[in-house]
């Protein structure tokens, strides 16, 4: 396959070994009038159109050719934090919040995570699969080729396994690559809220060993927040996961400063996510320990909350990634391009930084940067072509889907903005 004549090819090259930090987040590496040569499911070479045509002139006539004239080519976008596998919506809670109820008030009254948990527990494997695959198709239409998917709406061993098994089936049957995270510690069940330690013990003693035995997840996540899991409980859960080979992640400092960023650094988490209220000490600790900060501005936007301080984190040396946080309660969106808009307009990030955050740094946040996240020889041919003449237009024209073509592992899956 030859992708040729692109107005700009944004390669993101040079950051595969470690995530981009500080000024390196602006090094997006642009090739004007660029082309990409692909063989099977891998990128073979990226260069100027003249260079690629000269080198592969004997093979071009027999290759699939995509004319990207006037368009911008980037790596396939990577979404490193979603709650993909669930059923149901919570628009009634949206209306309640518009009338003054807070997210935590709704959750403590049995709504929020608990409402989706009830629906997900009652759903069959088939129902979860059908709703989730529709969401994956929409991710694809918005240029996303790799997605992290958390459990956490089961809260019992049976139903957590059900969520993870659905994700496993989706990984096999849908072209988007899924990376699974176990999040049994998403909330304390309503019938155990007076004895949370008992539930923590069950996560550690029953759920984590079985998830690890079945190889259903790569990561172990916990919602470290007042009224959910304390830093001490969160540490126990994350350390237990490490004993079974599950890499720590953490929902940190979303509602108030609670030591989540500091805990992420202490336990060696691959990422700390949300971070709206992260302390200066926590940000510094994350930078020192190389914890990726996954920021979710869609959540702050939807909950009408203060946004995370991306500029402060980047300047402090934290490698920042961006994600939709796709979920039915606090961020019901699948548009990572819109999240990139919010990164610029609400968190002080530059157009270059948000591209880095949604590609190579996002890939680092879920441990797949050796395969995806940049356009380099040997990497998977995951490529998004936007119908804009330059990358600045992606940030300038907000709330629009400019995706023209999506190539996943060398196959065209979206053409002219339509699923094939």
Helix segment tally: 16
Major sheet size, sense and barrel closure: 9 strands, mixed
Gross morphology is globular
Number of E-state strands:
17
Distance between the termini: 17 Å
Specify the structural class. Answer: alpha/beta
Oligomer: single chain
Strand content: 15-25%
Q: Unreliable segments (pLDDT under 50, ≥5 consecutive)?
A: none
Q: What average pLDDT do the residues reach?
A: 97
Question: Share of helix among residues?
Answer: 25-40%
Query: Rg from C-alpha positions?
Result: 21 Å
Could you explain how this protein is built, in words?
This protein is an alpha/beta fold and 420 residues long. It contains 16 helices and 17 strands. It has helices spanning 49-55, 91-98, 103-108, 113-122, 125-141, 157-173, 196-213, 231-243, 260-267, 280-289, 297-303, 310-316, 336-347, 351-357, 360-365, 391-396; strands at residues 2-10, 30-39, 42-48, 65-67, 72-75, 77-79, 144-150, 177-185, 219-224, 247-252, 271-274, 292-295, 320-322, 383-386, 403-408, 411-415, 418-419. Helix 13 packs across helix 14 (351-357).
């Amino acid at each position: 396959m030859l992708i040729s004549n692109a107005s700009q090819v944004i390669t993101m090259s040079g950051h595969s070994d470690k995530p981009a930090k500080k000024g390196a987040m602006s090094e997006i590496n642009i090739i004007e009038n660029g082309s990409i040569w692909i063989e099977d499911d891998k990128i073979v070479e990226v260069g100027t159109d003249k260079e690629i045509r000269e080198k592969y002139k004997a093979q071009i006539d027999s290759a699939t050719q995509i004319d990207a004239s006037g368009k911008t080519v980037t790596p396939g976008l990577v979404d490193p934090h979603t709650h993909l596998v669930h059923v149901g919506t919570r628009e009634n809670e949206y209306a309640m919040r518009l009338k003054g109820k807070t997210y935590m008030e709704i959750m403590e009254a049995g709504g929020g995570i608990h409402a989706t948990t009830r629906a997900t527990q009652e759903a069959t494997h088939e129902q979860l699969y059908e709703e989730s695959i529709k969401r994956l198709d929409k991710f694809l239409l918005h240029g996303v080729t790799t997605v992290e998917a958390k459990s956490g709406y089961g809260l019992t061993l049976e139903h957590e396994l059900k969520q993870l098994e659905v994700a496993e089936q989706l990984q096999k049957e849908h072209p988007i690559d899924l990376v699974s995270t176990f999040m049994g510690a998403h909330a304390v069940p309503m019938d155990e809220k007076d004895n949370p330690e008992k539930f923590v013990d069950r996560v550690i003693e029953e759920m984590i060993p079985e998830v690890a035995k079945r190889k259903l997840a790569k990561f172990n996540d916990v919602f470290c927040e007042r009224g959910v899991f304390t830093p001490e409980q969160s540490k126990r859960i994350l350390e237990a996961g490490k004993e079974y080979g599950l890499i720590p992640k953490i929902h940190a400092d979303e509602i108030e400063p609670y030591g989540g960023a500091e805990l992420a650094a202490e336990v060696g988490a691959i990422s700390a996510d949300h971070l709206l209220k992260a302390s200066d000490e926590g940000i510094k600790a994350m930078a020192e320990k190389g914890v990726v900060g996954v920021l979710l501005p869609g959540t702050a936007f939807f909950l009408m909350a203060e946004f995370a301080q991306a500029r402060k984190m980047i300047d402090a040396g934290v490698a920042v990634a961006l994600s939709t946080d796709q979920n039915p309660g606090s961020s019901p969106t699948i548009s990572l391009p819109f999240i990139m808009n919010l990164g610029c307009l609400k968190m002080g990030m530059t157009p270059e930084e948000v591209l880095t955050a949604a590609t190579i740094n996002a890939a680092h946040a879920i441990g797949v940067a050796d395969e995806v996240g940049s356009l380099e020889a040997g990497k998977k041919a995951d490529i998004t072509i936007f119908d804009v003449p330059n990358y600045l237009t992606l940030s300038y024209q907000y709330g629009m889907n400019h995706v023209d073509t999506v190539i996943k592992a060398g196959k065209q899956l979206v053409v002219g903005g339509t699923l094939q």
